[in-house]
């Protein structure tokens, strides 16, 4: 490397992310799976077991032994990365590396990459700085959101209406999409795991940053939790105080929509019956037993009709009155059908009522 200009050594901040070719997360796969800075690739200097071993040595034996053992593990992993995902990187490749706090893990990787000749740099503060940024962005942006809250009892096709509005150019905050859950006891999406709380908040912060605050943002009325995801308090407060619109559809149309939207639940009656068991204590035992029998038999029509009438609709009435301060002044969005065509036809009215002139 004789004759080359020295590389800058000082760590850089989040504002400099766009100046680098690749963002490398040097944390363990488990940490990366929980949440990561968007666009990062995972090249762990310690895998999950190795991180546990080194941590145990640090606590039970001491820092020197932990570093001695850890250094050998780090060297082996870095060699693997250099032969694998980093093998084709050109001489001018500029990586930015982070770990949990911008400490030893990312520092060791940067040292090795710079020895190769790449101008590698650490992210100041590591993932912890990103996490702080996410929380601060949500807390700052949520109170400014010009929300229009779409209400309506279960089966009103609120999510489908908002998806149609988004396709038509409206600004939509799809909280259930971000949380990968439909928001009810039957809301788990088949084959899709919900993100971690941290990953959801990263998704949310990115979504909020993309909105034009001069135009309305349509959002579905949600409780504080969507599956296992908790909505940030700043967003919950903004939802509760924002103007509302209410889908008004006949019970028959709602039932027809539910049978279409949740048809997959009929594929595994035993699983559906087990899921309904979560309502134990909220219903009379004979009612729950009857519903579970319908579930096992794949008889979704009577099951969903009973769920609407005896569980979801009463719960909706209670929650809307208590949670949404402007529900009494909600603008109506009436429809006789909730077919795909009818849903598309609602979008112009929704946007007009919400003040979206775009």
Number of strands: 11
Give the mean pLDDT: 94
The strands making up the biggest β-sheet line up spatially as 6-7-5-10-11
Rg from Cα: 26 Å
Please give the share of residues in helix: 40-55%
What is the makeup of the main sheet?
5 strands, parallel
Class by helix and strand content?
alpha/beta
Overall 3D shape: elongated
Q: Regions with pLDDT < 50 over 5+ consecutive residues?
A: 1-6
Strand content: 5-15%
Q: What's the helix-strand series?
A: EHEHHEHEHEHEHHEEEHEHHHHEH
Distance between the termini: 57 Å
Number of helices: 14
Give a nutshell description of this structure.
This protein is 49% helix and 10% strand. By secondary structure, the chain is an alpha/beta fold.
Task: Give descriptors for this structure.
alpha/beta, single chain, 49% helix, 358 residues, four-stranded parallel β-sheet, five-stranded parallel β-sheet
Question: What does this 3D model show about the protein?
Answer:
With 358 residues, the protein is α/β, with parallel strands linked by helices. The chain has helices at 29-34, 48-60, 63-83, 104-116, 126-141, 158-167, 175-179, 197-209, 233-241, 251-261, 269-276, 285-297, 300-323, 340-353; strands at 22-25, 41-42, 95-98, 121-122, 147-151, 171-173, 217-220, 225-226, 229-230, 244-248, 331-334. The strands form three sheets. Strands 6-7-5-10-11 form a five-stranded parallel β-sheet, with helices on one face. The chain has a four-stranded parallel β-sheet with strand order 2-1-3-4, covered by helices on one side. The chain has a two-stranded antiparallel ribbon with strand order 8-9. Strand 3, helix 4 (104-116) and strand 4 form a beta-alpha-beta unit. Helix 10 packs across helix 13 (300-323) and helix 11 (269-276) runs antiparallel to helix 12. It is elongated.
